[in-house]
Structures are given as structure tokens and as C-alpha cells.
Amino acid sequence: MTSRQMVTSLILDAFGGHQAAWLTAPRSSANPSTDIAHFVDIAQRAEKAKLDFVFVADFPAIPDGSLEQLSRSAVSMSVLEPATLLTALAMSTKHIGVLGTASTSYYEPYNVARLWGSLDHISGGRAGLNVVTTRSRSASFNFGKDDLDEHDTRYERADEFVEVLNGLWDSWDDDAFIRDYDEVRFFDPTKLHTLDHKGKFFNVRGPLNLSRSAQGRPVISQAGGSEAGKELAAKTADVVFINAPTLEFAQNFYADLKGRLAKFGRQQDELKIVSGLTIVTGSTQEEAERRTADVSRHIHPEIGRQMISGVLDTDLSDVDYDSRIPQSKILDNVNKGQTYFGLIRKFVEEGRTLREIAAHFAEARVGSIVKGTPEQIADKMQAWFEARGSDGFMMRAMTVPGNLDDICEEVIPELRRRGLVRTEYTGDTLRENLGLDVAPSRYLGRIGA
């Protein structure tokens, strides 16, 4: 077995990663989006395959778009809140990490510190928090705002948010709770620290009324391809998710981000870069292509139009679905997802039609899609991993439960045969299984504060 092990994780989707996956799911009166038994089954399958963690994305609103368009999609419609869902999954698993999303633009750090700190204790140190700045106007309207904050403002707030989070999670020294029965003292007051943070966005006194967990504090993950996003990741993240359309793109991102760590006093192995990958297997390449096409044919034109309009932040209602998107529709920049925006702009320059671009994004809503035999897929993953395009992969099943076995029972065993992934869990916490050290307290060696 090689010394460097691939990070493996799975996005938890009710229906699957494909935009039209819900149309191919078994028909029943039950709603998988709110069926906890459905998610427990997925998490337990992932744990049986020895994956590092399962991941829950989140968006605190109905997406932007017309009701006519939105009514044809299952994405972000009737979804469980991540911390609640992950707590249930933590109680139904023993080893796999549970990582979920919270918005730094609309939540308060003290509440998030309590929620994810509690999840970290309940899971025995297996929790992770994915911090996002949320790039849609519709979420703003649910939290007392009239519009989306500017891109750099959102990331400035996120930076301060994580600083406050870590300070709150370090409120107690690891040995603070002495439980001295003779002296009738539950904790040592010199080992409790008041944060007393006063910043541009937050004033938080603290301390947090919750002790540090078995891994010190939850793993922090982040995704963002902009300059501000990469700076935030290099400074604060343990795991970074990347949507990389090509190996060259992934290698450039990897080298860029790893190269930023030193100025924050960090070593390169303190940050794991994980590429998004939708996986579809077949006994041959042709069968995998056919399985994908069988799902893609269900994409409704209005959904395709809504997806691409949202990324470009422009109205495409007057663009024929089988026509090219005019260059005049492409803005110089947008106040949201820079990676997707750049990729669509590239497709427009190549002359792809709206239908073709929509099909690409419907199939691979996170990262890229790889189709082929388990051996072919493992070849690609190994090539990216060994070429320093990533430290591992955030895998997504195109349909659930249909393609879930593609990952857990075909691709992962092939990677294991090559010595690229673990045969058993080696640690008790998510940090241990990711090869990360226990997060040290900022107050280590200090008395009181």
C-alpha cells in the first residue's frame, strides 16, 4: 500500500447528482428528501465501503427562478437542515465522518459553534463544517436583506466568522473539567477562556458553553475558486472542494492553493484538496454512456435554461434551446460562483448550444463526470491523484440508489486493490482518518483569559 492515501467521500443526494435523477427514481408516495431511513441507508453503505465522510450540501432558500421552471426540479426542494440530518446519521454509524454546510452570510457564529460542536461530541469527533458564503439573492430575502452582499464582502465576513468559530470552540482547555468532589469544583476556572471578539461583522463575548471534542474542533471545509475564496481556504480550511473540469485546471489550482499555505504558517499536508466527481460505471464505456444518456433525456428545457441563467446571472428566456448563447449575454463578471461562470463562458466561446451546456451541468452538478468501466474510472482517479491534481475525491452517484453501488461496490474495491484507499478505518475521529492532527487550542500553555 502506498504511503499517501486518497481522501474518499460521498455527497448525500436524495435522488442523485443528475438534475433529472428524480424522474428515474422508483415511484412511490414517500419523499426521499425527508426520509431519514433513506439517508441512513446511504451513509451505512458509504461506511461499509470505508469512505472518509459523507457530505450534506445546503441552500437556505428556494432557488432563484420562475415558479414554472422551479416546479420541474427537485433540487433544494423540501430538504432537511444539515446539522439535524447529520446528527441522526452520526447515531446510525460508527466510523464515517459527517460533514455539512452552514452559510457564513446568514448564520451567526455562536449558534453554528454550538450546533457543530454538539454534533462533534455526539459523533465522537467525526464532524465537519463546510462554510459557504451563499451566492443567491433568494437566500438574502429570508434573512432581512434586500440583496446579495458583494462577493469580497461575503468572504471578508466568512474569514471573521471562522475566526470567531475557532475561538469559541477553544473556550475550554482539554483538562478544564476536573470534577473535584472534595473541593466541590466541577471545572478549573483558570482553564476557561472568554473570547471577547469585537470585529467588523461580529461582536461575540463568549465563552461557548460546550467543551472541546475528541478531535479538538470540527474539520473545516470550504469551496471557492475566486482569489478571495482561495485566500480564505489557505488560511482556515482543513479540506477544500474543487470543481475541476480538466486535470490541467486541477493541477494549477492544487499548486496555487498549496503554495499559499506557508504565509499562514501552515504545512502542505495540513490541507486536503478534494475534487468533485460524478461516477457512472458500465461493463463497457458504451454502456456507461448509454446509462447516462437514459437519464439526460429527461431534462426539461425549462430546467436547463434555469440552471444556466442562474450561473450567468442573466435572462436566457429569448434564447432558443438548440441555439448558441450570444456573447452579448455573457457579463464581464458575476457576484457568484466564479468556477462555473468561467466554464460556461468557455463553452459559449466554443459555440456549444444551450441544450449542450445544460446537459453537461445536469450530469455533473459538482466537478466533472467520468463514465466507463470501474477500471477506467479508477485509472482516471489514480492519474489525477498521482499528478497532484487532488488529494482525493468527493464522489456523487448520478442516481440513487441506482448508481450508488457503482461507487461503493465497484470503484472503491478497484482503488483498494491498487493500494490507494484504506482497507479499514485507522482512527476514531475524522481528523485522524484524514491524516490531520488534533486541532490545538489557541490558549495552549496559557492560564486563563
From TrEMBL:
Luciferase-like domain sequence ranges: 27-387
Annotated CDD domains: Nitrilotriacetate_monoxgenase
InterPro entries referenced in this protein's UniProt entry, alphabetically: Diverse_substr_monoxygenases, Luciferase-like_dom, Luciferase-like_sf, NTA_MOA
Domain of life: Bacteria
Residues engaged in binding FMN: 58, 101, 151, 155, 226
Protein family: Belongs to the NtaA/SnaA/DszA monooxygenase family.
A Pfam family the protein falls into: Bac_luciferase
The keyword Flavoprotein belongs to this UniProt entry's keyword annotation: yes
Keyword Cell division in annotation: no
Protein name: Monooxygenase
Native source organism of the sequence: Novosphingobium colocasiae
GO MF annotation terms: monooxygenase activity; oxidoreductase activity, acting on paired donors, with incorporation or reduction of molecular oxygen
Key words of the record: Flavoprotein, FMN, Monooxygenase, Oxidoreductase
